[in-house]
Structure formats: C-alpha cells, structure tokens
Write a structure and sequence with these properties.
Elements: E1 13-16, E2 22-25, E3 28-30, H1 36-47, E4 53-54, H2 55-62, H3 68-85, E5 93-95, E6 99-102, E7 111-113, H4 114-130, H5 134-147, H6 161-185, H7 189-202, H8 207-219, H9 223-241, H10 247-257, H11 283-298, E8 302-308, H12 314-326, E9 331-336, H13 347-353, H14 356-359, H15 367-373, H16 396-411, E10 417-422, H17 429-441, E11 447-454, E12 470-475, E13 482-488
Parallel strand pairs: 1-7, 8-11, 9-10, 10-11
Antiparallel strand pairs: 1-2, 2-3, 4-6, 5-6, 12-13
Helix pairs in contact: 2-3, 4-5, 5-6, 6-7, 7-8, 8-9, 8-10, 9-10, 15-16, 16-17
C-alpha cells in the first residue's frame, strides 16, 4: 500500500492506537509520525480530547526528568516537529499560549479513533444486554474484540499511559469473558474456542481461560485436544512463573483422565452446532440451567425443577444438561419415577447408586455405611462378605443412620455432581424426605438436582423444603444444622 506524508482532508483521518500506532488518511497510511515522543503526544491529546491540556501539564508528563524550562522547550520542539510531519494537523489541533486541545476546527476534518470505536461497541453490547437481544449483543462483542488489535500503544513506556492501557486491556478481557459465556449458552463451542484462544494470546497466564478451553474441547468430543490444553498450561506456567497449575485446573484435568473412553459416553446425544437435531427455542431456559450449575460449582447445592405441558421437551432439556455436564468428565446420575400403584420407596436413590459413576465408589466407604447401603443395593456386600447384613429398621435413630449412609454414598462421588430425577410428580415421599435431609446434611456440597414435572402435576406428597422449585441451603455459622436460606419456585417452561 502506498504511503503519504500528509493528511488529505478529503478523506477521514483514522487513528489507530491499539496494537501499534498507525495513521491512515482515507485508505493510505501516513508514515511521517514515526518518532515515539510525537506518537505519545498525539495519543495523549486524542485520548484526552474532552478538555484542553495545559502546556505545563503536558511538559511535565512527557519530560518528567527535565527542568520546567527545558520541558517547555521540548514541548515546543515536539509541536514544531508534529506540524512538519503533518502540515494539516492544525485543522484538528487547537493551539494557544496556554494549552493544546484536540478539537477539529472544520466540519469536513473528519477523523476516527479505534479506542473510541472499541468503547462504543462495548456500550452497544451493554445496551442490548439490558433488552435481552443476545444476537445483537454477540455481534457488538465480536465487533469490539475485532477492534482490539493489541495493547494500547505498546511501544510507549511513559507513565501516563500505563493506567489507561490497563483500563482498556481490562475492558477487552471483560468483553471476551462475556462473549465466551454467551457462546457457551448458545453451545457454539467452535466460536467459544476461538475466543478463548484469542484471550490466551493476550494473557497466556490466565488459568481460567485454559479451563474453559478444556471444557469446550471436551464438550465438542475432542478429549485429546482438551488434555493438550492442560499440558500447554503446565508448560507456560512453569516457564513464565516457575509454578504449577492451581487445584481447580488439576481437578479439571483429572476429570478428563477419568472419562470412560472405552464406550460411548452418556452424553453421546449432546447436540453440537451443525450436528443432530438442535434444541430450539430454549436458550433462556438453557441459560438458567447453566447459571444454576455455575452456582453449584462455586457455592452451594441447588434444586431446579423444569415444569411445563406434556410433550414440551422437559425431559429433553434435562437430559441435554446432563449430557453437557457429563461430556466434561464430571459426575452425573439419572433416575425416573413411575406412576405405579404403591410407589417403591427409595427407587430413584437406588437407581442413582447403581449408576457407574456412583457405584464404583461405594466399596471405598466405611463398612458401617456399606452395611446400610446394602438395604437398597444388596450387591455391594458381594465384595465384602465379611460385613454383617443390615438389621431390621425398628428404631428412629436407625432411619437417621440409614439416611446418613446414603448421603455419604452420594457425596463420595467426585463433585460437582448433577442428579437428574424425571417425572418428579411420581416420586415417593421417602426419597423426597431423604433429598431434603441430604441438603441439610451437606449445605456446602457442589450438587445440582434437576427434576421434571408436568404443569399442574401432583406434588402434594413432597414435604416442605422439597416441593418442586429451586432452593439453596446454607450453613448457619457454627450451628450443626443447616437452614434453608432461599426458597423459590423456578418454572423454566417459558
């Protein structure tokens, strides 16, 4: 591309400060402003264009180690050189004896600034987020990230630019994180991977982004690539910081290693963009489920009930969430309730305990708990024939001991843990009572229970605290008992 040495006022002046300093008049680069001090002066003026900048302030800012007199001389020389490099600069820059002000004096002196466009794109994304227009929000965030070609004026080492550079950099990171979250909600994992990779190019020490990449590759079914991301993380942290990955990163790696690759995973039905039948019209509900899962992974247990008319896709949505979690190498178990006369007590709990993800850990429990679990899963005693058979349950304390054993059996699985209970309206009261006990027993467990129920389904058998809805339990200081801190119905049928 041919370069020129002046600004053609017939075309807009484009000022680029992100990634490197670049002036473009129309489509032609302007190559005359190549001295770093002139670039710094021009950058400061356009970034602080809302008010005149005092000469004394500019002189001290750009030449802090010089005397006041020498600094003012240096500023006059820099302004002279800037006018020589850009003879048309006075159409944009107002200069008097006291101050300099970036203030185009002619209506046809058009100009643009990439930093301004970047911030405007972010403001547009925030506005669309308030009106819940995710399509436009995604477009605005992607446009903002495209404008961020790199750090603000990376070749400048003046102190004044450091906080501004960090501010713009943080805006970029926040926008990238918001876009990644949005892409994950849309299950556009290819785009999420590209965005995470872009984020790592700007900050290769961010472990959270490595974990996101591992998750996205796992969700896409590429376990090898997910493991490769972890090893890249290990190498970079060792080389740059002489450090090892944090515990959450190592746990994500261990989860991937423990995935059963010898058979089709339970998440094989997970719908990926461009494959299978998409789950249409459920983006908001899917976002609610993901938000609940994030809360579980970082805080406390949740119950989410999906309700709606028959055939609306409640079970499909719940199974999609189970598959999404399982694809990441995390623990899931599912059970179904049936409208049979004389509902079988603890049938869903028995089904959970017999899933591969929970059954494999039962033998590692304390013998006293194994004996109690054998009431529902007698086969656990096959490997421990020396253990006694469970005695008849005649006293109230025995029931509490039994409940505690079941809680240990479930919580012994790797967490975070997702339990799915389909057709909750047919669930037996014993299971509902135990679920409520479980959440009081372990208020800090990373557990999400998803139930499905038809709108208007009979849930009269559910005890208080286990009625369909979404609630969380928290500990109460040093008290041994937990209390329900929040309880609310959370219908997701939309």
């Amino acid at each position: 591309m041919k370069e020129q040495s002046n600004i053609n006022l017939n075309f807009p002046l484009h000022i680029h400060l992100l990634g490197d300093f670049l002036l473009v008049s129309g489509d032609t680069p302007v190559a005359t402003v190549h001295v770093p001090r002139l670039q710094s002066l021009l950058a400061y003026l356009v970034l602080h264009r809302t008010a005149p900048q005092a000469r004394s302030h500019l002189a001290f800012l750009l030449w802090p180690d010089s005397t006041d007199a020498q600094a003012h001389v240096n500023l006059r020389k820099a302004l002279h050189h800037l006018r020589q490099a850009l003879p048309s600069i006075d159409h944009f820059l107002h200069v008097d004896r006291q101050s300099l002000h970036w203030q185009p004096s002619r209506s046809d002196a058009a100009w643009t600034l990439d930093v301004q466009h970047f911030e405007q794109a972010l403001a547009s994304a925030e506005q669309t987020e308030r009106v819940l227009d995710k399509a436009v929000m995604r477009q605005a965030l992607e446009g903002a990230l495209d404008l961020y070609r790199g750090d603000l004026l990376p070749g400048c080492y003046d102190e004044w630019i450091l906080p501004e550079r960090d501010r713009v950099r943080q805006l970029f990171f926040q926008a990238a994180e918001r876009l990644i979250t949005l892409l994950e909600q849309e299950r556009d994992y290819d785009a999420a991977i590209r965005t995470a990779q872009r984020l790592l190019r700007h900050d290769p020490l961010q472990e959270t982004t490595y974990r996101q990449l591992m998750r996205f590759y796992a969700l896409r079914g590429d376990r090898v690539a997910a493991l490769r991301v972890y090893h890249t993380c290990v190498t970079v942290l060792e080389r740059e910081l002489a450090a090892e990955p944090s515990e959450p990163t190592r746990q994500a790696y261990e989860s991937l290693l423990q995935m059963n690759t010898s058979s089709a995973p339970p998440s094989a039905s997970l719908t990926l963009r461009g494959t299978g039948a998409p789950l249409l019209g459920r983006q908001q509900e899917w976002g609610h489920l993901q938000a609940a899962w994030r809360g579980v992974a970082s805080d406390h247990p949740h119950i989410v009930v999906i309700s709606g008319e028959a055939g609306i896709g409640k079970t499909r949505l719940a199974e999609e969430m189970e598959a999404w979690v399982s694809r990441q190498g995390l623990t899931t178990a599912s059970a179904h309730c049936y409208a049979a006369a004389g509902r079988l007590a603890y049938a869903p709990v028995t089904a959970w305990l017999r899933t591969d993800t929970l059954r494999t850990g039962l033998s590692a429990l304390d013998p006293a708990w194994i004996t109690e679990i054998a009431r529902l899963v007698p086969e656990v005693l096959a490997k421990r024939p020396e253990l006694p058979r469970p005695a008849p349950m005649t006293e109230g304390w025995q029931r509490q001991h039994f409940f505690e054993a079941l809680a240990h059996a479930v919580l012994n699985a790797r967490q975070p843990l997702l339990l799915l209970l389909d057709d909750l309206q047919w669930c037996d009261n014993e299971t509902l009572e135990w679920v409520h006990y479980l959440l009081r027993f372990a208020p800090g467990a990373h557990l999400l229970l998803i139930g499905t129920v038809p709108r208007g389904g009979d849930t009269s058998g559910a005890s208080p605290g286990s009625v369909p809805g979404s609630y969380t339990t928290r500990g109460t200081g040093d008290r041994s008992r937990a209390r329900t801190a929040q309880y609310k119905r959370n219908n997701l049928s939309g």
